[in-house]
Amino acid sequence: MSPEAEPSPIWDADQVAAYLKVPKATLYGWRTKKSGPPARRVGRHLRYKADEVIEWFDKLDGQLPDDD
Question: Is 39 helix (H, G, I), strand (E, B) or coil?
Answer without folding.
Answer: coil
